[in-house]
Design goal:
The protein has one helix at 58-66; strands at residues 5-11, 16-19, 25-38, 44-56, 72-85, 91-106. By secondary structure, it is mainly β.
Length: 144
């Protein structure tokens, strides 16, 4: 069985960082992916999907140091759905991507104002394949 998610999209805001009682850090941030298609009438429709991403420990610390709103990121992880009951006893669910790796593909800070900006979304443009770089410091973030 396989539970694996790969996303390339833009961060929706700076990551939120929490430190748990045991000292472990957790980062949460959203990533937007988009796709375009023609509807039945031939009109072009853009659809944006928002994904909730969670990173733990070393990955959370890295997200805190490096991620900012609007960055194009590559994220690998797995789907996880949490269930809880609200104050009225209703069941609530939240599906998240538990990240085990992310890499910044580019950031708005790295683009020059003198370069023409394309109206093409990241999912419609050519993006070079991203090969995860693993170093000894990333061992805690490995899925195995």
């Amino acid at each position: 069985m396989v539970n694996r998610v790969t996303l390339i999209g833009n961060t929706g805001k700076d990551p939120e960082i929490r430190t748990l009682e045991n000292g472990a850090k957790v980062a949460t941030f959203s990533v937007a992916t988009d796709e375009g298609y023609k509807d039945n009438t031939g009109n072009w429709v853009d659809r944006t999907e928002w994904h909730n991403v969670v990173g733990w420990r070393g990955l959370a610390e890295r997200a805190e140091r490096t991620l900012k709103k609007g960055m194009l990121v590559y994220v690998e992880g797995k789907l996880s759905t949490r269930k809880w009951q609200d104050k009225d006893g209703n069941d609530r669910y939240r599906t998240e991507i538990i990240a085990n790796y992310f890499r910044i593909v580019n950031s708005r800070e790295n683009t020059s104002d003198s370069q023409p900006q394309s109206n093409t979304s990241a999912t419609n443009s050519t993006v070079a394949p991203v090969v995860p770089e693993v170093s000894e410091s990333d061992d805690d973030d490995l899925p195995f």
